[in-house]
Write a structure and sequence with these properties.
By secondary structure, the chain is an all-alpha fold. It contains 13 helices and two strands, in the order ααβαααααααααααβ. Helix content is 76%, strand content 2%. The longest helix is centred in the N-terminal third of the chain and has 34 residues.
Length: 270
């Protein structure tokens, strides 16, 4: 009997320690995404629009609120929590430690990290990547071989070398894979293959030209320093795991939203 009691106590301690470790990871990730909003860039807008569409099939009784009001309330006050706990934490725990997440949060909170993120945001807002991609595809479909993109003539070689090092350490090259996946069943089409091959060859220079004049050399050095760490590499492994199954990622958020709706007294079809 004494042995059974000891095992029971050990089991309770194990559960308690696991819960504490999960709480620590959730807290560290919440700190990280607040320090580094680009970690979820675009996710809130996409999910907000998706939830408005889901409401039409999901909700029976809105409990006095409009569909837009419910989604806005959830996205502003609850989305980040659910994203961290239901989606990010399970993936990140598989690859990174709590201390590594804290390390990245501290780097992004630093003055250099804050300027780096401001300039990244400015670059993304000014980017004409989508327009350029459309133009390249139209050229290929027209049967014309697009010329390789060259670095901006005004861009110094020292900046180019630093940027290419920054790019190679970053996760920017994954954009090619993401764009390829968007073609779905047509990814083996000859024109699509030409487009993907062209992007694979020219992506670094495309990003270089868009970055020059916005991202400073100090920004790039900060990025290289951060991206070289095991903490960042582990975070990128976790990010790849999350986006590798978009359906699972989306369902993680939707289930959190459904539970929140039910807590608001909203009657759902579930």
């Amino acid at each position: 009997m004494k042995a059974i009691k000891q095992l029971f106590v050990l089991a309770l301690l194990a559960v308690s320690m696991t819960a504490t470790a999960q709480d620590d990871m959730n807290a560290a990730l919440m700190d990280y995404v607040k320090a580094c909003p680009s970690a979820l860039v675009g996710m809130d807008d996409k999910m907000g629009e998706a939830l408005k569409m889901i409401n039409q099939e999901l909700i029976k009784e809105y409990n006095g609120k409009t569909s837009e009001e419910l989604v806005s309330d959830y996205m502003e006050n609850h989305f980040l929590n659910d994203m961290v706990e239901n989606v990010m934490a399970p993936a990140v725990t598989e690859f990174a430690t709590v201390d590594e997440v804290k390390q990245l949060a501290a780097a992004m909170k630093s003055p250099e990290g804050q300027v780096f993120q401001q300039h990244q945001k400015q670059m993304n807002e000014n980017s004409d990547f989508e327009k350029l991609g459309t133009s390249i595809m139209e050229t290929i479909i027209a049967g014309v071989e697009p010329e390789d993109i060259q670095p901006d003539p005004a861009c110094p070689k020292t900046y180019i070398d630093t940027y290419y090092k920054f790019y190679d350490l970053s996760n920017l090259n994954s954009m090619v894979n993401q764009m390829t996946a968007m073609f779905g069943d047509k990814k083996d089409d000859p024109d699509v293959k030409k487009f993907v091959n062209y992007l694979t060859k020219n992506m670094r220079t495309i990003y270089l030209n868009q970055s020059y004049g916005i991202m400073t050399t100090d920004d790039l050095k900060f990025g290289v320093k951060t991206y070289q760490t095991e903490a960042w590499q582990h975070m990128m492994q976790a990010s790849a795991k999350m986006v590798s199954d978009p359906q699972k990622l989306g369902m993680g958020i939707i289930m959190g939203y459904i539970l929140w709706l039910q807590g608001q007294g909203v009657e759902t079809q579930m």
